[in-house]
Write a structure and sequence with these properties.
integrin binding; CCN family member 5; 3-stranded antiparallel beta sheet; elongated; Complement Module, domain 1; mainly beta; Omega-AgatoxinV; 14 strands
Length: 221
């Protein structure tokens, strides 16, 4: 109550125009409950007036501050998290920065996997010029068959029509996991698809969980 009486003036005197906050920092009331300010983010300095973003689970941590100085915004109970594009995610949270990737926050860092298939399409008689293009309204690019010479394409189709008999399966073994801990990828080349063409296929793998790292949020002076 003593701090409130010293710092908070009544009635409130606030700027006519609220401040423009950086991305990921919402407008909140200051510690006096008077004026709107930009909430402080993870690792930023804070005090009684300049409050942290409580919607992200942040509190003003005075544990490493000297007497009479402010604190630093940190997660409550020292919970680790991730900051991506100005937004905070809790430890263990799964999120999508875009429709093409999905990420997992773990131990203060994050790992991401692609949601779009990264296959390789080789030229075939019925599709001599494959090209991957962005389709309006769709997130992932798709393959199209582009004919640089319509006569060549028509002749190729006549000479080699689409496969109608069962496709003899062929494929390589799955590769070793790309990560020694946490989520990674294993790849192989196979023709086990509806067009019976060779393509690179991926699947998720995890040899073991990654060891937990100690939380380390440097103080900002």
């Amino acid at each position: 109550s003593q701090i409130c009486a010293q710092l908070c003036r009544r009635p409130c005197y606030c700027p006519w125009v609220p401040p423009r906050c950086p991305r990921g920092s919402p407008l909140v009331l200051d510690g006096c409950g008077c004026c709107k300010i930009c909430a402080r983010r993870l690792g930023e300095p804070c005090d009684f007036l300049h409050v942290c973003d409580q919607s992200q689970g942040l509190v003003c941590d005075y544990s490493s501050a000297s007497a009479g100085t402010g604190g630093t915004c940190n997660f409550e109970d020292d919970e680790e998290g991730c900051e991506v594009n100005g937004r905070l995610y809790r430890d263990g949270e799964v999120f999508q920065p875009s429709c093409k990737i999905q990420c997992h926050c773990s131990d203060g860092g994050f790992t991401c996997i692609p949601l779009c298939q990264e296959d390789v399409r080789l030229p075939t008689p019925d599709c001599p010029y494959p090209r991957r293009v962005e389709i309006p309204g769709k997130c992932c690019p798709e393959w199209i068959c582009e004919a640089q010479d319509q006569h060549l394409l028509r002749d190729a189709r006549a000479a080699s029509p689409l496969l109608r008999s069962p496709c003899p399966e062929w494929g390589t073994e799955w590769s070793a996991c790309s990560a020694t801990c946490g989520l990674g990828f294993a790849t192989r080349v196979s023709n086990q698809n509806r067009y019976c063409r060779l393509e690179t296929q991926r699947r998720l793998c995890m040899l073991r969980p990654c060891p937990a790292l100690p939380a380390a949020f440097p103080a900002v002076s």
